[in-house]
Amino acid sequence: MAALVVTVGVFLIAVAPFLIEWTMIPIFAGQVERIKIQPALWSAAVMVSYFYPFWRVACITVGIILLLTGYAFLRREKWAWPVALSAMSVPCIAGAHMIVPWFNFARGIPPAIFILLVGLVAYLTILLIPKGDRMQKVTNVVVFFLLGLTAAESFVNGFATTRMLLARPGAPMFQGIEWSILTVGGPLNWVATVGIFLSIPLLAARKPLGWYVGLGAGLLAIIANLPTHYVRAVTLDYLYNGILGLALVTVLLIPAFRVRLLGEPAHQ
Q1: CA distance linking residue 183 with residue 165, whole number of Å
Q2: Do residues 261 and 211 lie in contact, with contact meaning Cβ atoms separated by under 8 Å?
Q3: Using an 8 Å Cβ cutoff, are 237 and 197 in contact?
Q4: Per-residue pLDDT for 268 more than 60?
Q5: Half-sphere exposure of residue 61: CA atoms within 13 angstroms, side-chain side
Q6: Cα gap 143→195, rounded to integer Å
Q7: 237, 156 contact by CB (below 8 A)
Q8: Helix (H) and strand (E) counts in the chain
Q9: Among the listed ranges 120-134, 182-196, 216-230, 231-245, which one has the minimum average pLDDT value?
Q10: Fold of the domain built from segment(s) 134-268
Q11: What letter does residue 39 receive in the DSSP assignment?
């Protein structure tokens, strides 16, 4: 496991920053052309200019954490697996987010997709490596994959909602509930993302607090997205996000999964 963690750490430090740069520049080029036709898209360029560099710094930081965690695995430190698992979720969320603007403003295969693929393979692999029976492995994959997927979708929708609010017509006013609903859904999606991210290491360490945080974050994803989809049925992204939140809450409430996650009866 140490070799996997260190390899991903080196990738995030030495390769991911360049992949992010090679993803960002074509997006900017496409945005410049589109803004000439659709001036309201100026906010998309602003958001990309802030968040892609943020992801670059996040990948480097996580890479350092993974290098240190690799050493902790060699020393058989108990905290190493929860920290590594949560760190592996970062390239998954980052890659999933960065490829979305690419498909809107650029062509071809987005370089950032390799960050997503490396993160996803490493995330799933580290879930399956620890010893355990088949049901434990199924529980880990289902729960933690749902956590990562919901976090990624929530972050993407939080990003998109903020972009739309910045360039909304009639600003600073809100021209109808279809715009004011975004002031609820957007921030709640950010909070849900943070909550899910925090729940990953806590659940991996079998802490009951992780179960509560994950459950709360799933509920936030439902509240943030299903009403937004109902009011603004112009895209299915909010519906998908709400369904993922519902699936996460449902899985966490299943007693058999809770026992496997926490090692305690559901009634305790």
Answers
A1: 8
A2: yes
A3: no
A4: no
A5: 10
A6: 15
A7: yes
A8: 11, 0
A9: 120-134
A10: Four Helix Bundle (Hemerythrin (Met), subunit A) (1.20.120)
A11: G
